[in-house]
Design a protein that fits this description.
By secondary structure, this protein is mostly helical. It folds into two domains: 31 residues; 93 residues, Orthogonal Bundle (Helix Hairpins). Helix 3 runs antiparallel to helix 4. It starts with 14 loop residues before the first helix and ends with a helix. It binds adenosine-5'-triphosphate (ATP). Adenosine-5'-triphosphate binds next to helix 3 and helix 4. One of its GO terms (cellular component) is plasma membrane. Keywords: ATP-binding, Cell membrane, Kinase, Lipid biosynthesis, Lipid metabolism, Magnesium, Membrane, Metal-binding, Nucleotide-binding, Phospholipid biosynthesis, Phospholipid metabolism, Transferase, Transmembrane, Transmembrane helix. One of its GO terms (biological process) is phospholipid biosynthetic process.
Length: 126
């Protein structure tokens, strides 16, 4: 797609190509075990919550899962870009990666708390 600021790239709007790019990105992300197993865990809770018609609970778990997955993917991007630009040891790269990892850690922590609370609410308390 055309870059408005740099004036580079192809002109026009190509939704199908955008969709292909999204699928390609998802495929690259899902082969990462640390992402895929978390998605499987979420699905294992989301599906029964939908069957139980717990719409608010399902929405909360979906939101927490999306937040965690987005953070994981951006962390992968930051790590890959850092390694591409500087594969040797560099304390600045270390700091950049640590901040990205901390952001991901916060998202994972919130996802775990929500998943544990929802599993308790849906399967033990009910
Ligand atoms: N080039 C580097 N220079 C300095 N420190 C680095 C460098 N690469 C990695 N580190 C340090 O190692 C930590 C882990 O980075 P790494 O890229 O190995 O992530 P990872 O352990 O593979 O994470 P994930 O499991 O999310 O893929 C970073 O947070 C950083 O502190």
């Amino acid at each position: 797609m055309r870059n408005k600021f740099l004036g580079t790239g192809e002109k026009g709007y190509h939704p199908l190509r955008k969709f292909k790019v999204i699928l390609s990105g998802l495929r690259f992300s899902m082969i990462d075990f640390s992402v895929s197993y978390k998605l499987v865990l979420s699905v294992l809770v989301i599906v029964p919550s939908l069957f139980l018609h717990q719409w608010v609970d399902s929405s909360i778990i979906i939101l927490a899962t999306v937040m965690m997955l987005t953070a994981e993917m951006f962390n992968t991007v930051v790590e890959a870009m850092c390694d591409y630009m500087q594969s040797d040891y560099d304390p600045k790269i270390g700091m950049i990666k640590d901040v990205a990892a901390a952001a991901t850690g916060i998202a994972i922590f919130a996802w775990i708390v929500i998943l544990v609370v929802e599993v308790y609410e849906l399967f033990y308390k009910a």
